[in-house]
Write a structure and sequence with these properties.
single chain, 356 residues, alpha/beta, 434 Repressor (Amino-terminal Domain), Rossmann fold, 13 helices, 12 strands, 16% strand
């Protein structure tokens, strides 16, 4: 005689709970205490419960059709000063475009919210998000470490792109900068380039918890201590003041290559090559359309934007809200752009000029 299939209502009757509680427990839903989930999952196993594949397919179908709705909004919060700063940065614009495309695929609408420009406080932003019924928030690569946002975080599912603001304990996603630097140094070694220097801003290091310099120090472990070059950690300043500092540092350490995520330091390498006996090249750690001709690292910003949406949608669907004691840091590997010829992009001496 065929054994009767164990249903959720049977488990509910045995456990003395509602059938909905059983459903949540079997999906390991965080809204239930861990003890309740463990007890019901153990009981289901003992009773021989198996999910109904037809029912599972139906649920999956219903969820896929719901994704076609575009009435759910995810807030993409930035603290750029204005649209020009946002649009002119390949970093910010690519992150947003990747996130927007992925949100559309999943049936969500992604709206920009300008913190500090349109919303002077967390209270003001909080009021608008609640009024619009927004549940998901992406804090999108804040550039100002002094920014503080005080909101009713228990009402939202939140993901950060990069680390800032550091005081907010949410899952974060960023590029694997440590891997990027090590990858660049390894590729340079293949071409016989050993005198490599890293120039990075102090606030960039704060953004990613010193991953640039960590990768750089690890990448130098194979060198004799006398061959190791100290990184240049600089405070942002006007280009006309910063470039001479970079040139002096590179010349002092006889660099053959300058690694940096600042995309005008090719001027320093060009100046050294054309005005000294020091052949030096620039290798971008965050290549944009102009500097990718030098080879180097492509940070895959659109992919980071896409993954931020996947993460926040996952939190929305599993009812994860508020800050947490233990959060995850997710890293996306950058891509290597093949190195071009040593002198690619170096201008003739008579045309060389350090841009103001």
């Amino acid at each position: 005689m065929k054994q009767k299939r164990v249903l959720m209502k049977d488990i509910a009757a045995e456990a003395g709970v509602h059938q909905t509680t059983v459903s949540l427990a079997l999906r390991n839903h965080p809204s239930l205490p861990q003890k309740t989930r463990d007890r019901i999952q153990k009981l289901a196993k003992e009773m021989g419960y198996r999910p109904d594949p037809a029912l599972s397919a139906l649920i999956a179908y219903r969820q896929s059709t719901k994704q076609n709705r575009t009435d759910q909004v995810i807030a993409y919060v930035v603290n750029c000063h204005d649209e020009n700063e946002f649009n002119e940065s390949h970093y910010h614009s690519q992150l947003f475009e990747g996130a927007k495309a992925r949100a559309n695929e999943l049936g969500y609408k992604l709206d920009l919210f300008w913190y500090t420009r349109d919303y002077k406080s967390g209270k003001a932003l909080n009021r608008v998000l609640k009024a619009r019924g927004i549940q998901g928030v992406i804090i999108a690569a804040f550039h100002n470490h002094d920014t503080e946002i005080q909101m009713d975080w228990d009402a939202y599912s939140v993901v950060k792109i990069n680390i800032l603001p550091v005081e907010l304990a949410f899952d974060a996603i960023l590029s694997n900068q440590m891997f990027a630097v090590r990858m660049a140094m390894a590729e340079l070694r293949k071409q016989g380039i050993r005198r490599v220097g890293l120039a990075v801003a102090d606030h960039d290091e704060e953004h990613n918890r010193n991953l640039y310099t960590a990768g750089y120090y690890v990448g130098q472990t194979h060198l004799d201590p006398s061959e190791r070059v100290p990184p240049l950690l600089f405070h942002p300043k006007p280009r006309s003041e910063l470039l001479p500092e970079v040139i002096e540092w590179a010349q002092t350490h006889k660099l053959e290559a300058i690694l940096s995520n600042w995309n005008y330091f090719d001027d320093a390498a060009i100046h050294l090559t054309n005005h000294t006996d020091q052949l030096c090249r620039y290798v971008p750690l965050d290549a944009d359309e102009r500097t990718r001709e030098y080879g180097g690292v492509y940070q895959n910003h659109p992919v980071i934007g896409e993954r931020s949406i996947d993460m926040v949608v996952g939190q929305i669907k599993t009812f994860r809200r508020d800050q947490e004691a233990s959060v995850s840091l997710n890293m996306v590997h950058p891509t290597w752009l093949p190195l071009t010829d040593w002198k690619k992009g170096i201008q003739p001496p008579e045309t060389v000029a350090i841009r103001p």
